[in-house]
């Protein structure tokens, strides 16, 4: 059985994961209006990934006999100065999520809740990937200068991303 403190912390993380999908959906819509369909598609895949993260947390809370309480979401930003700006915002957000996962691990260890600690290790590894994949896109934008043919090439590259459900990884 989960402690109330751990249950509350996991519920707060579920909200953060769902908010992540909401934020990336907003970024996808921004890229649509900028005619960057590859970047829009990349973000839509990110939306799906975040929902699978939320689902993993929800399943875990249920399996441990806890209760999931869905919280209200804030309104995400809807516009960014440049594509690079949007991806920089995504990196900043992923770092925030990584810090939040680290806090959850600390709490699990404080409470000697080793089941939660073990469950959370998947997310510790996943956050390495999450930060690395956004950083890679930022690097591409910086190298290409963010305009003209370079931008088109990056957009095409981003459009080739496919969604891989975690179970199939
Ligand atoms: Fe669910 Fe992108 O962290």
Give a verbal description of the structure.
With 169 residues, this protein is mainly α. The protein has one domain: Ferritin, core subunit, four-helix bundle (Ferritin). The chain is built from 5 helices and no strands. Helix 1 (4-33) runs antiparallel to helix 3 (83-110), helix 2 (37-63) packs parallel to helix 5 (148-158) and helix 3 packs antiparallel against helix 4. The longest helix is centred in the C-terminal third of the chain and has 31 residues, at 114-144. The radius of gyration is 17 Å and the shape is elongated. The two termini are 29 Å apart.
How are the secondary structure elements laid out?
Blueprint: H1 4-33, H2 37-63, H3 83-110, H4 114-144, H5 148-158
Helix pairs in contact: 1-2, 1-3, 2-5, 3-4, 4-5
The structure holds MU-OXO-diiron (FEO).
Low-confidence stretches: none
Give the termini distance in whole angstroms.
29 Å
Q: What is the SS-derived class?
A: mainly alpha
Counting structural domains, the number is 1
Question: What is the N-to-C order of secondary-structure elements (H for helix, E for strand)?
Answer: HHHHH
- What percentage of amino acids are in beta strands? under 5%
Helix content: over 70%
CATH class: Mainly Alpha
Reported CATH architecture? Up-down Bundle
**Form type:** elongated
CATH topology: Ferritin
Radius of gyration: 17 Å
How would you concisely characterize the structure shown here?
By secondary structure, the protein is mostly helical. The protein is built from 5 helices and no strands.
